[in-house]
Amino acid sequence: MFRCLMAATVMALAFAPVSAAAEEGLIRLSDTQVARLGITNGEVRAAERQQLTVVPGRITAPLDALLTMAAPFAGTVLSVQTLEGAKVRAGQDLLVIVSNEYLAAQSRHAQAAADYRALKASVGRLKTLSDEGIVAEARLQATEADAARAKAELDATTRLLEQVKPVQGKPGAYSLAAPKDATIAQLSVMPGDMIDALDGAVVLEDAGALWLEAELPARFMGQVTVGDTARLEAYGVDGKIIAVGRVVDRQSRSVTVRAALDIHTALKPGQSVQAMILAAAQAGALSVPRDAVVRLVGDEIVFLLTEGGYQAVPVTVLSRGANEAIVMANLTKGAKVAVSGLTELKALAMEGQ
Hints:
The chain has helices spanning about 1-15, 30-35, 100-130, 135-160, 340-350; strands spanning about 20-25, 25-30, 40-45, 45, 50-60, 65-70, 75-80, 85-90, 95-100, 165, 175, 180-185, 195, 200-205, 210-215, 230, 235-245, 255-260, 270-280, 285-290, 295, 300-305, 310-320, 325-330, 335-340. It has about 350 residues and is an alpha+beta fold.
């Protein structure tokens, strides 16, 4: 009864007899009938990738995106200029520290600069006198060695002092400044805290790139390799897998997979997501529009456009994505399959059985 009603509905929509309701599975339709039934087609393509699984994951910052700012001189935190989550520009002050060590380093730098200038001048004079035979060459060499040591001390203190900015009007106080545009990820000190030399004070995060960290079930080891794809369908973001773990966690029976993601403003470090893992497709696998695959009498099929109509072709679905299905089937690349008007085609196919 259902088949008769559906077939009657299809014929009414087509306004013409369906002269071939199915001969050997072929549904014969004229171009006019195809248009009136609203049937449109999509293309069959060779599949490059197929979905293996969907796994939970979280968004992280790349390992090289985190930069710890350490205090080069021990002291006391005088003030904090910014807090966690704030975006800072290159050169912007992060915190101010008052330090006796900083004062001592400034003094050593000034002394090294004075020593080097004096010794450099002495080397020049002694070289002239040595060339004239007035002083021994050994004395010139000793002075050159002293000048080289003074220059090394000057360079070392210069590099050390270049890491910080002096605070005008506050002798012995220096500020740590951001070396690049970034976001404050972590602040380890507050005003009044004591801080030792080389202790981490601020962690900066480069928000320009993000990673996905996901747990891949161990049964897929060997099927996923570096260069495969991780897809966050909810955000329309793809990522390239850059690392696949080799040690299986005893509790979760999984390995860690990391992927470098395309930039997306809606994604934030620490955010939980669902990730589709895609790997190289099986040999002979084809990609068809997802909507083209329908179920007919318990089997999954597509309606292949042929000369004079449509043919129901069985398919084995390997995976389904948001827009495509990866299948194994007796189809050829470039063939056309129906993607709309499928209810009407199913009714005609069932009427012909």
